## 1
Amino acid sequence: MNRAREDILGKLQAAYGRRPGAPAASIPPAARIAPRRPAGPEAELAQLLTEIERLSGVTRRVANQEALRAAFAELVRAEGVKRATCWTTPDLEAWGVAATLQALGVEIVPAHADKQRVASCELGVTGVDAALPETGTLVLTSSPERPRVASLLPRVHLALLRPAVLRPDLHQVFAETREAGYTVLISGPSRTADIELTLTLGVHGPKSLYVWVME
Amino acid sequence: MTQTPATIDFRRNTQQVPLQMPAAVQKATAKFLGTRAAVVDALGNEYWQVLRQAGHDIRLHAITYIDHYLAQAEQAVTRAGGQVHWARDAEEARRILLDIAARHRVKLAVKGKSMATEEIGLNHALQAAGIRVLETDLGEYIVQLKGVGPAHIVVPAFHLSKEEIAALFRDKLGVDAPAEAEKLTQIARMKLREEFLAAEMGISGGNFLVAETGTIVTVTNEGNGRMCTTVPPVHVAVVGIDKVVPDWESLTVLLKLLARSATGQKLSCYTQFISGPPRSEAETGPREMHLVLLDNGRTRILQTPECRETLLCIRCGACLNICPVYNNVGGYAYGYPISGPTGVIFASQILGPKLAGTLPFASTLCGACNDICPVKIPITRILLHLRRRVVEGDESEPATAPVSLRLGAWVGALALGSTGLYRLGSKLLRRLQAPFVSGGWMADLPAPLNRWTMSRPFPAFAADFRQWWRGRYGKARPE
């Protein structure tokens, strides 16, 4: 196996006449692009929500704890939620997500439970680590409190977002997430156009994406 | 499923293109080009050109210092707890995957769409070892059920009608399938859901490999890519060595270019960044992560300076969509999983002129591919070099064209390269053509020139250009 490594690197060095271990030249300045200049916070948030809606996501602004309870009651009814799995970050705990769902008669399945059980959830609730207005994109990282499967296996993904997580562009997001072990950018619900180019939502990932702004 | 044929005869393949193929292809490519044009317009053409140049420069830099960046990526992946394997060729890559599968007693593997695994014929090898392997991208799933390869690198099954797909589902899955895109998609979701949860191994490709942190980037829409890399206990990514990029800042450019050029989206639905397996037991995700770095002829491409830029490709498929040849024959005529202009320059070099000597000629050299390419690959310039390689040979390959073609090319070069011979030729041709001309056209020419007149007449040589010019403008030189 190491022979393969030496062979491949050797051929590459021979192709360019480089010594083993030679450093790279610096990256040409023309290969870099300028960061985006953000608009004001309210305009940025409005653009984010517009773009998410354009991608068939459903957005909502939640003013307080009471409004959150009402929103959950509506969602549970509309989507027929019986089981849910959710992140356990301090934000979601503070918003009382699991407790609110339980009070509505929804069973909470821990994300670390058996895969079949997590997959049987109708709803996955997550926070958002960053968001991009220009493309309507949610940025989610992974940690023990942020299970990857919560935004993937259930039929409905609900993301709760603080306005403070908005970032102007990928430059800023990458500066913050480059050391993370896992990051996913989510732009709208899962989609395909593989059959006769007909846009169809909900292939393997969630069929519906709800984004609630916690104000 | 895909197996590389012994020799690719493009001309013969085009004669087997189903009649409905061109219309289906053109419907799809027109749609993609339309959505692409809209998002490019939204950015403004001036900024788009700045992005293309930046994309070109960053990719060229990456492959120029590829040895450095690969070593850096290897170190970073290892530090993150992933295992790195190097594969010189398809055989070695297949063996690495079979070993990993055997170690984990894998019976079922799920696969995201990956041109690198198509290239190494992975499915066939796994199946031969008794492992079920399932394509999970909806289009790939459909073509796998049908037992064929992808007809397009972005939308593999676009040439099949929903009626055909419904019939296929009824036949192969034994389900009641109505001919509706939504219902068929739901059937595939249900069927594959069970497989994702049961699979012991997930296989993916990688759109990019970030050297500084050893991060594998996957760009997908359906969520199957996320499933394959998240749900099974083992994740293996097969990535061509050319996919390496220096850093995350490079991605800000390349991600802007990729989805826009491919599907007209600003960003794909899911873009994942995976640096090794999960860092703690308490995280969800695979327990083990492997990266297979695939050469399989890429080092040879880099040995020829004229051809290196072949490897700048980010596999968006825009050059397929715009290509007049692709639009009339579809993907299968190319006899290789990657088709269209980028497939032609890649496959001709990976397979060599003996197997793929007809491919560089599968182009009109119109240059639309150069203009649409988001990383500015000079595709037609590379094509010309590859044609020359077939006819004359170069430092890396001997000539493979038949003697008649080589002789013809030699005579042509001689005649067109000398004023005297050119003048003599133009006089001679007008004499020689006389028996065949009728009403200004030649309807039938003797072999081998009848390859042209079989399908359309050839216009007769009307006059000596120099004489015509003198008659019209006297001694003035052409501007």
## 2
Amino acid sequence: MLEIKMTYVLFVGFALFFIGAYGFLTRRNMITMLMSIELMLNAVNINFIAFNKYLFTDKADGIFFTIFIITIAAAEAAVAIAIIINIYRKFRSIDAEDANTLKW
Amino acid sequence: MILVFGVLTVTSRKIFRSAIYLLFSLINVAALYFYLNYEFIAAVQIVVYVGGIVVLILFSLFLTHQVDVNLPSPPLSRMFFALLACLFGFGFAFSLLIAHHFPANENALTDLSVSYIGKQMLNYGNGGFVLPFEVVSILLLAAMVGCIAIAVKTKKNA
């Protein structure tokens, strides 16, 4: 019973991770790629929480790692958006194919 | 619900709608945390993701986009191979998960109240998390300074 419920929650986490991966691979707009990354980070959080809830009820490590991941996701989103806006000023576009100045 | 809105997020052609679908998906993740009795994590999820990150994404959308412009559809070959890779990865990972037998849990429940989380977070003894806490603090500070340094307009070039 317990294992079945845990499998359900982990199924959601896995599926969300691969949905995010699919979006990251297909989209070429930088902001939608950022949104896909957010989905993948959320999937990882769901997995941490599920394992903490069903396997390690005597510890709280999953909760702490989830909190740290949420913090890092916020910092990452802020930095990414600053970079995206700067790229938009320079190239007038946020398509990942257009920012090719570093390409040689 | 999480999965439906997640799929809509990555497939919607209108970028503004895509952001709103992401918002609903994140709210549903918070609902899942409530269902698992982790109220504090759910509250943090709502405040940081729904309140912070989605608003940030929406603002950057307004700054860089015409709202009613359709995104170009990705080329069919790329879509096909990405779908193939993701389905294969999902099938592989999930078959491993089904095959693996997790040990049954006989541990006692700890209370996961907010006060316990706060005490453990700043505890430097056994099982304390003060070092990652400090590292994350420094990371956040560096990220904020970096954001300002990147986003500030230089008068000479502009």
